[in-house]
Amino acid sequence: MIKHLARLRLLTLLGGLLLAGICTAAPQTPAPYTEGDQYVTLPAPYQRYSPEGKVEVVEVFSYGCIHCAHFAPLAEQLRKSLPKGVVFKLMPAPFSEEWLPYARAYYAADKLGVVERTHLALFQAKFDQHYPINTLDELADFYASHGVDRARFMRIATSPEATEQLKKDFALLQKWQIGGTPTLVVDGKYRTAQVKSLQELVDLTQWLAKRELTGK
Q1: With contact defined as beta carbons under 8 Å apart, do 87 and 135 qualify?
Q2: pTM for this one?
Q3: Which terminus of the chain has fewer CB atoms gathered within 10 Å of its CB, N or C?
Q4: Whole-angstrom Cα distance, residue 88 to residue 59?
């Protein structure tokens, strides 16, 4: 009788363990995005844009890029919707001689603290209102029309410090394997790749940022 009860207890225990195994083996929800398709994991060691401790989302862009102009309002929504612990940054891409003035202009605007109130306005002036904003002089005129001291803007935009920063940025863009804009990089680790729409670019970036935040 004692042996029979012991056998029953053993069978009950084994049954419970099997049931627990079945429960824990339930299929997981598949990831909504695919490595190597919508995004890629960059080679280690990962290099971030800044030493700030928060998870970092960097939009690589240019004021000369019409796709960046279309993405800019969505990027602003993305910036505001990122969870606590994630920071959004802009990084100009000096990919060509034509785009170099835009990168210098962003550097000066950032130093002068006017990016937040001029970023969308510059895209609108260039692509919606068709103002001739291509050279650094024309960019200086644009910022002057928004209350920025023109001489100070030009001094910062053409400074050796600006040139050195642009060289560092270009080297990082090469490490991140950036070939076009807009592209987003999360924590220097994940880079967006093939997306079907600008909205998918936003959704993908949010997913990668939350994934990295959870991992940290």
Answers
A1: no
A2: 0.85
A3: N
A4: 8
